[in-house]
Design brief:
Shape: globular
Largest sheet: 7 strands, mixed
Structural class: alpha+beta
Distance between the termini: 70 Å
Strand content: 5-15%
Number of helices: 28
Number of strands: 13
Strand order of the largest sheet: 7-8-9-6-5-10-11
Amino acid sequence: MPDLAYYKGRWIAQGEDGSIAAVGESLNEARQFGVQARPRSRLTLAWVSPYPPHVMLPEWPLTTVQGVPFKATTWLAGGPVRDLLLGRVPHDWDFVTEGSGLQLARAVANTLGGAYYALDAERGTGRAIVDRPGSTEPIMLDFAELRGPSIEADLWERDFTVNAMALTLDGQLIDPTGGRFDLEAELLRMTKCSTFEDDPVRLLRAVRLATQFTFTIEAETATRLRSQTGMIRHIAPERIRQELVKLLAHPRAHIGLEQLAWSGLLSGVLPELADASAAQETAAKDNALAGAVALVSTLHELDQLLHGGPRTHTPRGSANRHGTPPAWGWQMLSQALAQQQRELLVYLNTRVSAEVTRSDLLKWSALFCGPTAAEEASWQRAAARLEGLRFSGSSIGFTTVTLRALPQFAELVARGSGPARAPISDLEIYRYYRSAGESGVAVALLALARLLAASGSKLNREEWMQYLMTAAALLEAYFDRRDTVISPARLLTGHDLIQMGLPQGPELGQALERLREAQAAGEVKNRPEAVAFVEQDIRSLTGSEITDVTSYETS
């Protein structure tokens, strides 16, 4: 990051790579000079505070908030200040005001054409949800009433010093707890001794923030945290879920799991893995936690591979057991997924609920099916835990179906192995997706990651090739031949079959399913062929002839 003191009190235009493209005395001047300097670049504009430490304040949404007619003093506070000091653009924005947070939130929502609702009416906290300019990405702007007689008193009531800083809208830093010093020292320190007693969810937040920012939990804070783990039972399941979702979504989630075990929190939030927390201090390697750590880490490696970036760390669990997977294994994986790389990223980034994506739920699946976990009960354990954490029905369904379908993937691999192996048939692919549904792609990726995590440097080339061939066939059918192999169009309906002589009952649905299987296998391609297929099917079931099928053959 450049020395911002040089630009203090002025506007700057930044390129997409973060470099400074132009400087201006006003917003319009910086924008004009930036467009002239880089006409094809997407520029962002920021104002550099004239006060140390000269924070860059983004044009949006701060200029909008400043422009809303509201007489009460307002500050930017908490996480966004921390992120700006770290040179990061905040995703969500938290403001504190001496006036009504509800009124200010409504005014900002109206100004920006966004949605408004009362986040916490009793405490005077409102939220405006707006789209970031130039995109459809929703951004949350929260406005809370001042808690305490001053902004300093408000900040002292917050959780950790790095989150207890505020900025005036003209760029003056307010830091009563020494958060900036701890930020530079990469320390996570509680603001006061009662931090965790005041709100026990901060126990999880401490682990999550330390993982997210690679911070060290300050010694007294760590001691206090470990002594207060019993309070985890007083946290609402929804709040536990929110913290764990954020933790598992992070690239360093595998480290976060180990931190949960170290802190003693694991037994309170993920008891399925807690049997391993004591074993982590012994020579034992094959336990639930070690398996989950290995698999979650490998899934992150897989995500990096799909994004085309270098792998920046060694999967911890795999390294503990059998060393790291060989380079040729990753190269073969990259080649196998290359054709569907873009489609896979879209698939994984698709939201299953407002809170989680398919990529997120892959890591949740990994918690219950580590490389050495028993597959039979994994989906039941997952369903019970996710229900306990109040996940949405769609999220629970996606995860449990993913885990239940893992053995089906293994069966496909086994069928194609051996000296007389043959490629997977379209009928087998249809039956696989009939059972796995939208989870089918996730199952394939999870199975690949699971073998890598379990094998490490002992990865068998022949077995790996068979896994890759199976996954490639399933992915190709899903992304390139979905309409013909996975979801073939219905050529006949149940009403058609009844008129053709098949009585209502279970046989009717079975006959329709046999027809769809024939379509998937390429045996039936049009309506006349469908009629002929069903005619033969009915003969075999009822022994009766169909006397008039002309309307079905020609319509």
